[in-house]
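Design job #97: recover the sequence.
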C-alpha cells in the first residue's frame, strides 16, 4: 500500500522588492529613474521648463503617493495625497530638498501654466463623467440635504468663528469653505486661485491656509463615518435612523437605482485627444466669459458650462466619455505631481505650523464636520432619506478629500453602495461650493 505524497504548500509571503511595480514600472528600474532625477535635482542643473518641472513633480508625487498608500492605517486617512501635499514643503523647510526645487515647481505650475491645463481637465471631466440618469433620478431631493449641510456649516461656522475671535469671513473662506469644497485637486486648488484673484495674496499663500483644513477634515470624516456606522448598528428603535446602506425610505422597494450602466467608449489614444481638445475649448470659453463679465473667476464659467452641457444633454456620449478618460488620466498621472508642485513651490511650512497649532482653527474644523453631519442628516430625514445614509452621503461626502476620501469614508461606514451619492457630493457639490465662494470672495474678501 503506497503512501500518499504531500504536496508542499507555497508560502504567500510579501512580494520581493525586485518584483514590485510602481506606476507600472518594475521597482529596480523605477528606483534607477528616481536616482537619476535626484542627481539632477541636487546638482541644480535642471532648466526652468516644462520637461524639468513635470519629471521632478511626477517622480516625487508618484513615489510619495506609493509610500503613503502602503502605510497601514495611515493609508485609510488619505495616505498618498497627504504625503504629497506635506512632505515636499517640509523637506524644503528642513533643507533636505534644495530651494531650487521650489522655484522649479512653482515656475512649472504657475508661470508655464500647467495649473490651468490640468485643473480644467479635472473640472470638465469630473462633471461630464457623471451618469446623467443618476443626476436626473436623484433630482432636487438629494441636493436639499447637501445644500442644507453647506448653508448650516457656513452660517453656524462663521458665527462660532466670530465668537472665538477667528473672524466670520476668515472662517468662511479659510476653514468651512475648504472643508466643504469637495477635496484637494478639484476643490482646494481652484479655490486657492479664485481667492488669490480677489484677495491680493498668492495662490500658494492661500493654499497654505486652506490645505490643513482639508487634510484634518478628511481624517475627521473617516472617524465620523465609523461612529455613524456603529450608531446605526446599535440603534434599532428609530426606523428613520439608518437604512443599512439604502438611502430612500421607500415602502415595498429599494428606491432609486443609481448603478445603471451608460454608454461605453473604449479607452484609446483618440479618446484622450478628444477629451484634451474639448476640455481646452471649455477653458477658452471660460476665459471669454470671464473677460466679458468681470467679477467671476473663469473657473466658475468653466463649471457652469460643463454642468449645463451635462444637465441639458447637449453632447454625444462619446465626447463625455472622452472627457472622462482625460480626467482619469490626469488624476492618475498628474494629481500627485500637482500636489507636489503646490507643496514645494507655493506652501510656506512656517505658515502651516502657525495655522495647525491655532486651537481656534482646529476647533472650527471639528465643528464644521459636526454641523455638516447633523444638518444633512436631519434635513435628509425630512425629504425621505435615512439619517445615517444622508449624513454620510451629503455631509461627509462634501467634507472628505474627494475620490480617495469617498472610498475611505464608505469603507469606515461599511456602505460602499452609497458611492454614486458621494460622487454627486464631491463633484456637483464641490462645484456648487466653488460658485458660492467665488461670488462671496468677489465682493467680500
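Job complete. Output follows.
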Amino acid at each position: 500500500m503506497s503512501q500518499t505524497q504531500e504536496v508542499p504548500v507555497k508560502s504567500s509571503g510579501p512580494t520581493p522588492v525586485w518584483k514590485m511595480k510602481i506606476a507600472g514600472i518594475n521597482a529596480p528600474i523605477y528606483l534607477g529613474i528616481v536616482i537619476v532625477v535626484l542627481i539632477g535635482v541636487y546638482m541644480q542643473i535642471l532648466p526652468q521648463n516644462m520637461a524639468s518641472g513635470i519629471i521632478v513633480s511626477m517622480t516625487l508625487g508618484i513615489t510619495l503617493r506609493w509610500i503613503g498608500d502602503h502605510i497601514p492605517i495611515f493609508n485609510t486617512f488619505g495616505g498618498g495625497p497627504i504625503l504629497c501635499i506635506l512632505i515636499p514643503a517640509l523637506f524644503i523647510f528642513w533643507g533636505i530638498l534644495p530651494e531650487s526645487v521650489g522655484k522649479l515647481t512653482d515656475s512649472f505650475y504657475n508661470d508655464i501654466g500647467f495649473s490651468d491645463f490640468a485643473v480644467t481637465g479635472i473640472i470638465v471631466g469630473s462633471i461630464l463623467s457623471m451618469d446623467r440618469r443618476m443626476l436626473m433620478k436623484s433630482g432636487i431631493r438629494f441636493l436639499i440635504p447637501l445644500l442644507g449641510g453647506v448653508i448650516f456649516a457656513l452660517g453656524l461656522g462663521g458665527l462660532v468663528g466670530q465668537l472665538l475671535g477667528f473672524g466670520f469671513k476668515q472662517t468662511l473662506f479659510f476653514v468651512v469653505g475648504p472643508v466643504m469644497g469637495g477635496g484637494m485637486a478639484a476643490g482646494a486648488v481652484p479655490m486657492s486661485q479664485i481667492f488669490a484673484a480677489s484677495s491680493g495674496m498668492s495662490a500658494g499663500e492661500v493654499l497654505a491656509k486652506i490645505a490643513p483644513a482639508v487634510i484634518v477634515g478628511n481624517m475627521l470624516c473617516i472617524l465620523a463615518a465609523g461612529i455613524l456606522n456603529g450608531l446605526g448598528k446599535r440603534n434599532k428603535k428609530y426606523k428613520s435612523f439608518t437604512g443599512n446602506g439604502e438611502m430612500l425610505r421607500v415602502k415595498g422597494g429599494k428606491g432609486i437605482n443609481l448603478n445603471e450602466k451608460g454608454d461605453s467608449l473604449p479607452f484609446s489614444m483618440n479618446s484622450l485627444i478628444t477629451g484634451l481638445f474639448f476640455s481646452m475649448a471649455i477653458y477658452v470659453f471660460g476665459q471669454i466669459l470671464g473677460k466679458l463679465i468681470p467679477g467671476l473667476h473663469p473657473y466658475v464659467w468653466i463649471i457652469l458650462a460643463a454642468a449645463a452641457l451635462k444637465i441639458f444633454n447637449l453632447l454625444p456620449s462619446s465626447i463625455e466619455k472622452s472627457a472622462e478618460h482625460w480626467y482619469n488620466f490626469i488624476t492618475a498621472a498628474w494629481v500627485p505631481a500637482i500636489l507636489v508642485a503646490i507643496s514645494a513651490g507655493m506652501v510656506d511650512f512656517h505658515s502651516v505650523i502657525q495655522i495647525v497649532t491655532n486651537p481656534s482653527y482646529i476647533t472650527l474644523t471639528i465643528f464644521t464636520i459636526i454641523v455638516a453631519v447633523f444638518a444633512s442628516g436631519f434635513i435628509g430625514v425630512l425629504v425621505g432619506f435615512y439619517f445615517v445614509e444622508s449624513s454620510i452621503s451629503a455631509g461627509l461626502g462634501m467634507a472628505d478629500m474627494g475620490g480617495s476620501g469617498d472610498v475611505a469614508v464608505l469603507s469606515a461606514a461599511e456602505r460602499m453602495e452609497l458611492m454614486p451619492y458621494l460622487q454627486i457630493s464631491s463633484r456637483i457639490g464641490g462645484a456648487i461650493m466653488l460658485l458660492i465662494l467665488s461670488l462671496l470672495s468677489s465682493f467680500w474678501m
